[in-house]
Amino acid sequence: MTDVALPATERLYWTQPQAQHFDAEVVATDGPHVALNRTLFYPEGGGQPCDTGTLTWNGAAVQITDVQKRGGVIWHTLTGDVPPPGQRVSGELDWARRHRHSQRHTAEHLLAQAFSRVLPQFAVQSVSMRGSECTLDLAGQPSEAHAQAAQQLLMSMLRHDLILDTQVVTADQLTNFPLRRPPQVSGNVRVVLFRTPDGEIWEASACGGTHLPRASMAAPVVILRLERIKGGLTRVVFMAGEEATERLSQVYGQALSLARSFSTSLDLLPLRVQDTRDELTAQTAETDHLRRELAAVRWHGAAHQQIVGGTFTCVQLDDERLLRPLLDQAARQPQSVTAVVCSSGQCGIASSLTSFPAGTLLRAWLEAAGGRGGGRPELAQGQTTSPSVFLETAAAWAVQNAE
């Protein structure tokens, strides 16, 4: 796409942000891309996805799937036929998509301002509104308590129904506004303001995106979680508007279903879940204890052969969950080497004889039996493709090293 010698596109999405239809003239084409003299279609930028919709002329309608700004020219990517330069066309936005994007962008401004008012060092480093889960990357490492304070402040301000005010000003005039962050552009700058009903500026930022005429139209704004990311930043993940309402409704339904499965109420669900976790923890501890006891019984009940420097024990298991407890039990036995193999193929060796390192033995036996594994001199684990050959290899080794 080229914008050489082309006039800048008139941005109707700034001057008529609530319009859904417009008429324009084609000024240039480049393959599937069309430049118009004026457009309602917002080009991708500032963390906000582009608008989509249709372009119609002479009774034909084609889809606009992408919109990009190059210099001052806005290019529209079409899926079908391309109108020639000079052709009069009509455009129609996918309004549901635009409205979602405007809700996200409005919420981003307001939530960023709320964090800034909680603590000024929570400065925005980057934003993304490309999906229903939007993000603010903040400096200053805000905590969960800070996020809760910011959300409560924002909820309070949404009840005041802040009003959108946009102005295009010169760089010299920017000092007249309490901008939250320095602008990233030069020359004339579009300033987006949200004012209280009495005219006080609550939020001010240089921005070229689309927003809602009243802040309350972005409600609810819900912080979903905080994530620590590289660079010492904190990512605030949030949702806004209908998308947030849908998510909250979904979560409510899931919570209600879970409460019913526990035969309790939503209010008591956290306590019921915690009780269940405590019960599970206790049962897991008891099960682990019983497995350790059973492992000790299995080891002491197995046949022990005399080898050079100590004893050799080989144990076969059907339950692979006993493998590690039995190896741990065996590793505590003095002057011994123990081999354990499960019917599933999991296997291991424990050795307290320095002359027979477990890791070395396991690798050698698995080379013969097939499989992979390794470990430390005192304990090694692996997986064999042939438990029977592993047992034969262990038995042959015991004979070779018999005392």
Structure description:
- The protein is α+β, with helices and mostly antiparallel strands and 403 residues long.
- The protein folds into 3 domains: 10-93, Elongation Factor Tu (Ef-tu), domain 3, CATH 2.40.30; 99-252, Threonyl-tRNA Synthetase, Chain A, domain 2 (2-Layer Sandwich); 302-400, Diaminopimelate Epimerase, Chain A, domain 1.
- 33% of the residues lie in helices and 32% in strands.
- It contains 8 helices and 21 strands.
- The protein has helices at residues 12-15, 95-118, 144-159, 241-261, 269-301, 323-331, 358-369, 387-400; strands spanning 10-11, 21-30, 33-36, 38-39, 53-57, 60-70, 73-78, 88-93, 124-128, 134-138, 163-169, 189-195, 201-206, 221-229, 233-240, 304-307, 310-317, 336-342, 346-351, 371-375, 379-384.
- Strands 2-3-7-6-5-8 form a 6-stranded antiparallel beta barrel.
- Strand 12 (189-195) and strand 13 form a beta hairpin.
- Helix 5 crosses helix 6 and helix 7 packs across helix 8 (387-400).
- It is elongated.
- The relative contact order is 0.08.
- The model has no long low-confidence stretch (mean pLDDT 95).
- Keywords: Aminoacyl-tRNA synthetase, ATP-binding, Ligase, Nucleotide-binding, Protein biosynthesis, RNA-binding, tRNA-binding.
- One of its GO terms (biological process) is alanyl-tRNA aminoacylation.
- GO terms for molecular function: alanine-tRNA ligase activity; aminoacyl-tRNA deacylase activity; ATP binding; tRNA binding.
- Residues 1-250 form the Alanyl-transfer RNA synthetases family profile domain.
- Belongs to the class-II aminoacyl-tRNA synthetase family.
